[in-house]
């Protein structure tokens, strides 16, 4: 049915949260604004209606519109950016093409970057005088004064010595050029500070004494304002439901990211928290632009980048940033962009999409599921950036993310002695037994096995039933191994943790050593019934008279679950498998023979196989 107006619910004063199957708008101060949008509405008309309805200041803020778009396969929604007339028509057409009756439109408010000749409030236009002489510049932004900040970029030659090579010398065009750049950068920072003073907003990275009120005292109006830096936030991945899609707080995948201004380019004077933050921003910029760069110089105080195609295409793109004196901040003091070169075709991979950036992207996913497959990582990178990375790069990114979250595998094994020493000191009476291999290096041994059992388990087993189950499981990591476990059974038929061991694998030697440690350090109780699978190492260890688990000291029985699984593998008959389980659980000899006879009538070969079992 065709209609003339479409109901649209606008959400603002909150934040967009994206999950695997839905998009929501959350926030304690979230407001809604219901609108009736004409079917022939244009994008600019929609923007004007939202400004009018929400009373958002049009001069200070621009709007980013995200529509909650329904998908065809099930009750799922994804963000749909509304940027032009075509996307507005597609959004409004949802009422006619789907079952929804009203459209949800999420509004993200972005502060407008000030231009040099832009009017500020009700004051006259600002003009830059020759040589950007900030000290003589009249801000026209109220009674507050703003001094020239000392960022440490005074044009000194100490950052441009010969140790960076000839390419860096090209960047240092003389002291006069650096002074001009530094004045320009200082002006931009002071201009933004003055603009915020006029608007009553104070943003400071490291200025705890800064007055954040909108009404500063009259007595302090003549004092210089503290120097503040407007720092782009470090990309932090927030935890969302299911964690299948990690959403960055400032790099949302459905919004075109802005690096330094609305066009997505860097700007001179832009400050980053650290060199790593600047490098990550440069990588993301290059990936989004489908361009590549090379590192001309990189040190603790300097980073110089230029376009990879500077020689063949004469592309002028170049970025130079230096550390702010006595801080870890990095500021861009020279920038030429955007790229003028054009890629004739897109490569499957990108040089700047390295394993470090991949690890940052998947860190939240690895924290939720560290066994995430390499193929899933490749698919996630493909969905986010549109590039098919190699298997090796995905694996390296995964290993780096694991090291950042959980530590290094080698270092973890090195910490094992300290861990068990702490266990022994904090749990008096517990048993810890090591087995290592000697090496030719002094004070160095190779880890082979470790056994441990806590004192409450040792004492509590005396009051449990004379039953013990043993089994092993794989260790998944860089260094393979097995975790051997012994469990008891209490009076309520509940599992009772008894002993543990980490070994190089399951074999006769490791199982014999594990059972010997239990007999020597945990219990000397006779007549214990040991339940296990039919692993050859266990079978051999249980009949060894030197380990204390032979027939005169203990009983050995096979686990019904493992036995039935082996039976099913051989005969592939669920009915016979259920009868085998019933026979194993029979409490009387009469019931046991009844089930065995039934198995023989159905399959005589299965009965013969069961009777050949020595238990």
Describe the SSE topology:
Layout (H helix, E strand, L loop, with lengths): L4 E8 L2 E4 L4 E4 L4 E8 L4 H12 L6 E10 L6 E6 L2 H8 L1 H4 L5 E9 L54 H6 L3 H25 L37 E2 L8 E2 L22 E2 L2 H15 L3 E6 L3 E6 L2 H4 L4 E6 L6 E7 L18 H14 L5 H12 L5 H16 L2 H6 L1 H11 L4 E8 L6 E9 L1 H6 L6 E9 L5 E9 L5 E9 L4 H14 L6 E5 L3 H7 L11 E5 L1 H12 L2 H12 L3 H14 L1 H8 L4
Parallel strand pairs: 1-7, 17-20, 20-21
Antiparallel strand pairs: 1-4, 2-3, 5-6, 5-7, 8-9, 10-14, 11-12, 12-13, 13-14, 15-16, 16-19, 17-18, 18-19
Helix pairs in contact: 8-10, 9-10, 14-15, 16-17, 17-18, 18-19
Q: What structural keywords apply?
A:
615 residues; alpha+beta; 7-stranded mixed sheet; elongated
Describe this structure in words.
The structure is a single chain. The protein is α+β, with helices and mostly antiparallel strands. 33% of the residues lie in helices and 22% in strands. It has 19 helices and 21 strands. The protein has helices at 43-54, 85-92, 94-97, 166-171, 175-199, 275-289, 310-313, 355-368, 374-385, 391-406, 409-414, 416-426, 455-460, 508-521, 536-542, 560-571, 574-585, 589-602, 604-611; strands at 5-12, 15-18, 23-26, 31-38, 61-70, 77-82, 103-111, 237-238, 247-248, 271-272, 293-298, 302-307, 318-323, 330-336, 431-438, 445-453, 467-475, 481-489, 495-503, 528-532, 554-558. The strands form five sheets. A seven-stranded mixed β-sheet has the order 15-16-19-18-17-20-21. It has a five-stranded mixed β-sheet with strand order 4-1-7-5-6, covered by helices on one side. A five-stranded antiparallel β-sheet has the order 10-14-13-12-11. Strand 15 and strand 16 form a beta hairpin. The longest helix has 25 residues, at 175-199. It is elongated. The N and C termini lie far apart (76 Å). Residues 115-181 and 198-258 have low confidence and may be disordered.
